Amino acid sequence: MSSKTDQHTLWDLIKDIKFGMLTHRHANGELHSHPLTTQNKSDDEGANLYFFISRKSELGQRILQDGNVNVSYADPGDDSYVSVSGTATILEDQAKKEALFNAIAKAWFPGGATDPDLALLQVAIGHAEYWDVSDSKMVQLAKMAKAAITGEPPKKLGEHKELSVS
What we know:
alpha+beta, 7 strands, Pnp Oxidase, Chain A, 5 helices, globular
């Protein structure tokens, strides 16, 4: 089980990334990914991520069959990367939809939080892994150059951590 601090660090890494790539298994066995906007406003949602999706979409239908998903986030500018595995379900909670609904979601769901096509996808995080490099690009390059010259792997290029969240 991860600590609240670990979960807070995880949230800090993803909160400003506009899109997460949600990957699920298609009916034919292939993996499919979709860019989705994380609707959470803070890490006080516990170990859950929320997304708005279309009920009629392939994703909306597939989740009903197989809820095993992965959501990946990347911020190459800050050298931070997150991979979250969990179980996705369609959450029938009108109050939650209304609390999370915003102007950007209205572009996709013009009927607002009561749009019949609007589904609230909840991903209960079971496992998460992140990579976060805090060194400047110059320090990173210097460590890589030293590694290339010495033949030894670079020392501590950043933080890498696995979290069991469920």
